[in-house]
Design goal:
Layout lengths: L1 E2 L7 H10 L15 E2 L14 H8 L2 H18 L4 H24 L5 H22 L3 H15 L16 H7 L6 H21 L11 H41 L1
Antiparallel strand pairs: 1-2
Helix pairs in contact: 1-6, 1-9, 3-4, 3-5, 5-6, 5-8, 6-9, 8-9
């Protein structure tokens, strides 16, 4: 069994889905967990199929075209990093399109494994770019996200289809109802909002245009940082789960 996610699925979400074995409706997209389907390629959406013609069609699905546009916006934002008036609209538009592509995929019945892969790649690319430019240790945050991404997209076999209830309570609480809980919203806010908030702090945007007093700036940083740390705990659980799978597989081969 292999996962066939839709476009619009974030790194943490895809990781928890595969590592924990959560099974949900594949149509529940826009950054929500995804379903497991048969490895033969059958599943919901017109993204399933075989042959070069179908492959070319998938590449030109509208959600995937939005992904290509997002890549261009990310590179444009990178070039304009020192010009907040240009950077913020470019980066913000990329974030907005991240939500639009999932809606388009469902609306046009153009979900695909490639679309989900592309969506996570662009997410990691955009956040990794921003983190690495913000702080010297920003590459570590990006490295963790890419590590989770690699764990997600390894074929793990049917043994991974287990009950999500077996995951730690914290992970279940964060993932409950597809992040539509206060705890889940907190984590997603930290994941996407913290680097952007720190960018605004670095360039004085929180003080001058927004006029936020220092204590609110500090409080906002703390709240978003805690949310990101909660997300980090989920990422560590996903990585550790994958490590246990790999080492267990080694033991089975040698026995």
């Amino acid at each position: 069994m292999v996962p066939i996610p839709n476009a619009g699925t974030s790194n943490i979400e895809l990781a928890v889905t595969e590592a924990g074995g959560l099974e949900v409706d594949a149509s529940d997209n826009d950054g929500l967990p995804v379903a497991f389907v048969d490895g033969s390629g059958s599943g919901s959406g017109s993204g399933s199929g075989s042959g070069g013609e179908m492959g070319r069609r998938v590449l030109l699905y509208w959600p995937n075209i939005i992904g290509y546009i997002r890549i261009g916006l990310v590179f444009a934002a990178w070039a304009a990093f020192r010009t907040p008036a240009a950077f913020l609209p470019l980066y913000s538009l990329s974030i907005v399109l991240d939500g639009v592509d999932g809606w388009v995929a469902r609306r046009l019945d153009q979900t695909s494994r490639f679309g989900a892969w592309l969506d996570v790649v662009v997410d990691n690319l955009s956040r990794g770019m921003l983190w690495s430019l913000l702080v010297e240790w920003g590459w570590l945050v990006s490295a963790v996200e890419w590590c989770v991404f690699v764990c997600n997209h390894n074929a793990r076999g049917a043994r991974w289809k287990s009950s999500f209830a077996s995951s730690p309570r914290l992970v279940r609480g964060i993932m409950a109802k597809g992040f539509r809980t206060p705890l889940g919203t907190w984590v997603i806010g930290g994941l996407h909002g913290l680097p952007l908030w720190l960018y605004g702090y670095r360039w004085g945007l929180l003080s001058r245009p927004l006029g936020l007093p220092p204590w609110i700036q500090a409080l906002g940083t703390l709240v978003l940082a805690v949310g990101r740390l909660l997300g980090f705990s989920v990422e560590m659980w996903c990585i550790w789960t994958h490590v246990k799978y790999l080492t267990r597989d080694e033991e089975e081969e040698t026995s």
